[in-house]
Write a structure and sequence with these properties.
79% helix
């Protein structure tokens, strides 16, 4: 019914989705790392890149979890007890990227069909998207299935889901990698607040401590 003209809105959907996730990583995560973790965000992101890349390529936070735990303890200075609790919990409950997707897919479908979303519906969208993202399994395609319930709850036609299904793998990559990276951000922040984060290991790779020992 839409013809080839639908590729324009779908492409914009992908751009908005990626843009929102990149903004979350570059701004929100960086601020948490800098002000709460009190470490250099650039050095953190370099050491978190491996687990981020695995999550991006597999679309599974569970697949990236072992690498995140290894790097978190051995390279970021997160205590093993903290990593063992925070990272597995975050892999199932901390779904920032998925929550972003729920908001973007609703706005995409609503604009596609010319449906106005009231302020009360937008508030309900935020609350519902947050709760649904927490309940998502750490596996590929889960967000696509749950978004059907979200659109149904808001009275938006489900045809928009069919349009996104073909490109969902592309956007799921950035959702999952944002989720996985957020787990490490929280683990660093928690360790910092507990006072047992090894900042020298995270920022200098333990070189400073080694030189002192010599």
């Amino acid at each position: 019914a839409f013809g080839v003209g639908i590729f324009g809105p779908v492409f914009k959907f992908i751009l908005v989705d990626y843009g929102a996730n990149i903004f979350t990583i570059a701004v929100s995560y960086s601020l948490i790392i800098y002000f709460i973790g009190r470490v250099n965000p650039i050095k953190f992101f370099k050491k978190a890149f491996e687990s981020w890349a695995i999550a991006f390529s597999t679309c599974s936070s569970a697949a990236a979890l072992p690498v995140a735990m290894k790097n978190g303890v051995n390279e970021m200075g997160i205590p093993k007890d903290t990593a063992s609790f925070v990272l597995p919990l975050g892999a199932t409950a901390n779904m920032n990227g998925t929550g972003i997707y729920f908001g973007v897919i609703v706005l995409f479908a609503a604009q596609l069909y010319g449906i106005d979303i009231s302020i009360s519906q937008q508030i309900m969208l935020v609350l519902t998207a947050t709760m649904l993202s927490i309940g998502c399994a750490a596996a590929p395609q889960t967000g696509l299935i749950i978004s059907i319930a979200l659109l149904t709850n808001l009275g938006i036609p489900l045809d928009g889901i069919a349009l996104i299904a073909g490109v969902y793998r592309i956007v799921d990559q950035i959702h999952t990698s944002t989720n996985s990276l957020g787990d490490l951000v929280v683990a660093v922040a928690v360790s910092s607040m507990e006072g047992d984060l090894d900042r020298e290991l995270l920022e200098y790779g333990g070189m400073f401590a080694t030189s002192e020992a010599k």
